[in-house]
């Protein structure tokens, strides 16, 4: 599995697990919530380590590029270095969620 795929899978897992903890009607129990929150914390650390590895590799780095533009400077963003966010503008040094970015293609909702 490529590092960029690991990065995507970690984020998907993180988002799914967070969603279950925050929005589930099922009573998870405080002990279990603690274990799950520890898992989120581990995923976050792994994500940042994998991101650093990708960033350090000149070929893999290309795969961090996105079609999403920064709302401030309108330059293209890269995949965020933080698991909680989706996009990073390296020029403004700011992270964004999906909805904050200007889409290249306005057809996409
Ligand atoms: Zn910017």
Walk me through the structure.
This protein is an alpha+beta fold and 109 residues long. It folds into two domains: 59 residues; 37 residues, no CATH class. It is 44% helix and 14% strand. It has two helices and four strands, in the order H-H-E-E-E-E. The chain has a four-stranded antiparallel β-sheet, with no helix packed on it. Helix 1 packs antiparallel against helix 2. The longest helix has 27 residues. It is globular and about 45 Å long. The relative contact order is 0.13. The structure holds zinc ion (ZN). Zinc ion binds next to loops.
Q: Topology of this protein?
A:
Layout lengths: L2 H21 L6 H27 L8 E5 L6 E4 L7 E3 L4 E3 L13
Antiparallel strand pairs: 1-2, 2-3, 3-4
Bound molecules: zinc ion.
Taking all Cα atoms into account, the compactness measure Rg is 16 Å
- Enumerate the spans where pLDDT stays under 50 for 5 or more consecutive residues: none
Please tell me what the overall shape is.
globular
Share of residues in helices: 40-55%
């Amino acid at each position: 599995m490529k590092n960029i795929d690991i990065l995507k899978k970690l984020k998907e897992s993180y988002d799914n697990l967070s969603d279950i903890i925050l929005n589930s009607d099922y009573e998870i129990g405080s002990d279990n919530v603690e274990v799950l929150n520890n898992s989120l914390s581990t995923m976050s650390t792994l994500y940042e380590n994998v991101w650093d590895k990708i960033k350090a590799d000149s070929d893999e780095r290309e795969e961090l590029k996105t079609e999403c533009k920064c709302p401030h400077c309108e330059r293209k963003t890269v995949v965020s270095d933080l698991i909680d966010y989706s996009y990073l503008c390296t020029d403004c040094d700011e992270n964004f969620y999906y909805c904050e970015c200007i889409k290249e293609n306005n057809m996409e909702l």
